[in-house]
Amino acid sequence: MCVYLLLAFLKCQSKLKKSMQQILRLLQLNLFEKRDLMALLRGDPMRDKRFNINQMALL
User: Fold this and answer.
1) End-to-end Cα separation, the chain, in angstroms
2) Shortest CA distance to 26 belongs to which of 13, 2, 12, 10?
3) To 10 degrees, what angle do helices 2-14 and 20-29 make?
4) Cβ count within 10 A of residue 5
5) What is the pLDDT of residue 1?
6) Are 26 and 11 in contact (CB under 8 A)?
7) Taking Cα atoms as reference points, which of 31, 29, 4 lies closest to residue 19?
8) φ/ψ of residue 15, rounded to 5
9) pLDDT-derived band of residue 59, with 50, 70 and 90 as boundaries?
10) Could you count the other beta carbons within 10 Å of the beta carbon of residue 41?
11) pLDDT tens-digit readout, 13-26
12) Alpha-carbon distance 8 to 11, whole Å?
């Protein structure tokens, strides 16, 4: 019930047109990605991660 209330609050604050089920699925699919929550819900493309040039790459 707590998750449902948090999702309802998030939907109300962001004025999204997505259903609760769509928001929940989106969050489940991106659970381990470090992204801005509002950018994820809006559907913004993921920013390109630049590798640190001072760090040795594993091959």
Assistant:
1) 46
2) 10
3) 100
4) 9
5) 84
6) no
7) 4
8) 55, 40
9) low
10) 19
11) 888 888 888 888 98
12) 5
Alpha carbons 56 and 44: distance in angstroms, whole number: 30
Distance CA 59, CA 50 (A): 17
- Transcribe 1-59 into DSSP letters: -HHHHHHHHHHHHHT--S-HHHHHHHHHHTTT----HHHHHHTPPPPPPPPPTTSPPP-
pTM: 0.62
List CB contacts of 38: < 8 A, sequence separation 6 or more: 14
CA–CA distance, 11 with 17 (Å, rounded to integer): 8
Q: What token pair was written down for 27?
A: 């969050």
